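User: Could you go from structure to sequence for me? I need the amino acid at each position, not a summary. Structure tokens:
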């Protein structure tokens, strides 16, 4: 049985104390740093970036807020600290 993929949009915002590394962090994300969730950058500024992607359906995709926390935790493990907001397409 094929895996169901959930499309989503993600807004990444620079944290007040991490603005110097924001551009580098979003470049790392754009270059495939989230291997489990390939992302396309739609647009970016010096403090925000908008991405579009899809992930396999799972417990982490039950809510927008829960998925945002999941992604923040995954990125933090790789020393990428961003504030994320996610909208899962239902």
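Assistant: Here is the amino acid at each position, in order:
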């Amino acid at each position: 049985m094929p895996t169901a993929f959930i499309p989503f949009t993600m807004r990444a915002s620079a944290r007040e104390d991490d603005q110097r590394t924001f551009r580098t962090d979003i470049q790392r994300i754009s270059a495939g740093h989230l291997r489990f969730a390939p992302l396309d950058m739609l647009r970016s500024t010096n403090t925000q970036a908008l991405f579009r992607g899809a992930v396999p359906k799972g417990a982490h995709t039950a809510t927008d807020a829960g998925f945002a926390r999941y992604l923040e935790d995954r990125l933090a493990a790789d020393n990428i600290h961003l504030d994320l907001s996610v909208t899962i397409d239902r």
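One structural detail worth keeping in mind: The CA atoms of residues 13 and 48 lie 4 Å apart.
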